[in-house]
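Hi Y.,

Following your request, here is the sequence exactly as I used it, all 40 residues.
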Amino acid sequence: MLSGTSVPPPQIDEFILADNAEARVEDLAALDWSETLLMR
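Below is the corresponding structure, written out as tokens. Let me know if you'd prefer a different format.
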């Protein structure tokens, strides 16, 4: 889809996946964010 444009594809780590919520618990707490806020 993006191969015909000058826009580089996004890095896979730019996507937020629900199944790795446990890995970001400390990061969200430091930001005073919730998983619900992040996934809206």
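The chain has a mean pLDDT of 84.

Thanks again,
Q.
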